[in-house]
Design brief:
Blueprint: E1 7-12, H1 16-29, E2 32-38, H2 43-51, E3 56-59, H3 72-77, E4 83-88, H4 94-98, E5 102-105, H5 110-126, H6 137-147, H7 152-159, H8 163-177, H9 182-191
Parallel strand pairs: 1-2, 1-3, 3-4, 4-5
Helix pairs in contact: 6-8, 6-9, 7-8
């Protein structure tokens, strides 16, 4: 990160006090700039999320109801391709935390939080952004799994990779094909003879 070129951050945190505290931590450190704070993911918030150009999103998963908590990360991915870090304010199932790029705890000290966030951003910038619009062999495999209706976790287990790697592949597939929906990707896979119509459930 260049000095003076601050990382743009969006906070999605229902508690205004916690959000302000996080904003204060970022402000004091100077390399991150909080561009906005959302307290939920209502329709209005989703529109804001879609239109915000941020590199990092810090979200408290309590904004999702219990049923959708384990897929919160992918819901955010529908609107933004920023890195997503979970803020742990209450205990939750491990599955909830595993989907995020990193987890920071409410009780982490600022230097610990910053170190975690720097690592996430460094890992993202190392992922090569190929200009080629051709899908890699692995991306085609993942695309086939998506078209067959498999969940990120199932794909991760099948190929013995982390769920984050699956999400990164899916982002790259979306970026290269320009297709955001599963239905659209299924049609793409069929048209490109990656799958047989009979293999789709």
């Amino acid at each position: 990160m260049k000095h003076g070129n601050r990382v743009k951050v969006l906070l999605i945190i229902p508690s205004r006090i916690i959000a302000r505290g996080m904003e204060g931590v970022f402000h004091d450190l100077g390399e991150f700039s909080v561009e906005g704070i959302l307290t939920d993911l209502s329709r209005t918030s989703e529109v804001r999320l879609k239109n915000m150009d941020v590199e990092l999103i810090v979200v408290d998963p309590v904004i999702f109801d219990c049923a959708s908590r384990a897929s919160g990360r992918s819901r955010i991915a529908e609107y933004s391709d920023a890195a997503v870090v979970a803020l742990q304010t209450v205990p939750m199932e491990d599955d909830v935390w595993r989907q995020y790029d990193e987890v920071v705890n409410l009780y982490d000290l600022p230097p610990v939080i910053i170190k975690k966030l720097r690592t996430v951003l460094a890992n993202r910038s190392e992922t090569p952004k190929s200009d080629s619009q051709e899908l890699s062999a692995r991306e085609k495999e993942i695309l086939v799994c998506v078209a067959k209706g498999m969940l990120n976790k199932e794909i991760a287990d099948l190929y013995n990779i982390s769920i984050y790697t699956v999400i990164t592949h899916r982002k790259n597939i979306t970026r290269k094909t320009g297709i955001k929906t599963v239905a659209g990707l299924t049609v793409y896979a069929l048209l490109n003879n990656l799958i047989d119509a009979n293999s789709i459930e």
